Every structure is written in C-alpha cells, then in structure tokens.
Amino acid sequence: MTAALILTLQLSAAIDGPPPPIPPEIITRDAAGHATIRAIKLTVPLRVDGTLDDELYQREQPFGGFIQVVPKYGAPLSERTEVWVMYDNENMYVACRCWDSAPADKWIANELRRDTNQLRQNDHIGVMFDTFYDRRSGFLFYSNPLGARADYSVVDEGGSNVDWNPGGSRRPAASTAGGRSRWRFRSSRCAIARARTRCGAFRCGDRCAARTSGRI
After folding, report:
1. Where are the alpha helices (DSSP H) in 17-140?
2. To 5 degrees, how large is the angle CA 82–CA 2–CA 91?
3. I need a surface site. Which of 3, 91, 125, 181 has the fewest CB within 10 A?
C-alpha cells in the first residue's frame, strides 16, 4: 500500500485513485497500489483517552498493509500497524494501534519538547491531511509514546511552518504489545477547504521504529 491515501468523507467529487469503499469496507486498492480509504462518520464525539476499548473498534475495521520506505523500500512493514480515521461535525479523529515485537524497555521514547525535530528520532507515528487535495500543501502531526507532539503546516511545497499550532488533543498509551494513540483535530483549524466535495488526501506515512530505523 502506498503511503499517500485518498480520504473520502462522502462521495460527491472526482477522486484521483481507486473508487471509494462501500460500507462496511474501509479501503480499496488498485493494481498500482494506490488506496482510497473511507472515514468513519460518528454520531457522537469520540472520547480521546488513549485507549481503544470503545465498541466502535469492534464494529469498524482498521486499515493497514503499509509498506516500508526505509530500510527496505517497498517491503511489507515489519511491525503491524492499524489505523482508524473518523469525523463528526466538529472534529477529525485518528486512532492508531502500533504493535511492536520488542519489549517496552527497547523502545526509544525520550523526547517531550513540542515541535522539536528530535521527536522524529524517537519511536513515533505521523499523519498528514492534504485538505486542499492539491498534493502540495497540508497539515502534519507527530506523536511519540510519551505524548510529545509536533504539528506544522506546509504550503505549496514550501518550508514547514512550525509556528502553526492548532487546537486539538492526543492521548497515547502503551502496553507490552505496543503503543496506542488517539488524536482529535478541530476541522476548522485544518482549513477544510473542500467542504462541498468532502474528499482529500490523507497520509499515514511516518511510523518509525527508531531502534531499526524502519519507516513507512
């Protein structure tokens, strides 16, 4: 599966990729490996507490099947990763379950500073919303198992604006099997420009196991 995914909230626009999934399916892929995912519509706001014990996670399937960028480009991801993308009338939500075959004392998580580049030297996961669907701009978010965060915007393939600090919350949690994280983003702060079409690109392209230098 390619790292860049097309995200659909509802079908009313041309999509540059596979057709949108028909519920209950979450993801469709084409022969070239491109993917389109369906965001899950919530009727009530999601509790953001770092646990994935809501009935939602039993009812709705995550998507996965990620591939590596490094150290083995194109190889299947060495550590299982599951992702849910959800939304309500006010927020976007991303929930991740990052399995890890190594014990917790082997994880690398020692950074708590906000917006530091060193966060990406820790075990972490990052997501990006291309809300203008132009493949040139977007809003990026990173977090590690300690709950450190980095968020910034990119406009027209320019440099990163680390001064962009949106509202939102994230709650990580860890267990012997791996890490879990839930993020909530205020839609209004992410410039959801395609309000009529309700589609855009979503990238879950930076899960990193720092001890192996593996990235998706």
Report:
1. 56-59
2. 55
3. 3
* Per-residue pLDDT, 111: 92
H-helix or E-strand containing 79?
Answer: none
Q: Are 92 and 129 in contact (CB under 8 A)?
A: yes
* Tokens at 165, concatenated: 């600090």
pLDDT at 4: 47
Name the pairing type of β-strands 91-99 and 81-87: antiparallel
Tell me, what DSSP letter sits at residue 56? Answer: H
168-175: strand order across its sheet: 40-41, 81-87, 91-99, 178-186, 168-175
Reference 171, options 195, 152, 144, 192; nearest CA is 144
Which residue type occupies 138?
Answer: G
Q: Which residue has the higher pLDDT, 100 or 175?
A: 100
Spell out the domain ranges in the chain.
4-215
Residue 13's contacts (CB-CB under 8 Å, 6 or more residues apart) are 194, 196, 197, 198, 199
Q: Structure pTM?
A: 0.80
Q: Cis bond leading into 166, ω under 30°?
A: no
CATH topology (fold) of 4-215: Immunoglobulin-like (2.60.40)
Q: What is the pLDDT of residues 36-83, one digit of tens each?
A: 889 999 988 888 887 888 889 999 999 988 888 778 888 888 888 899
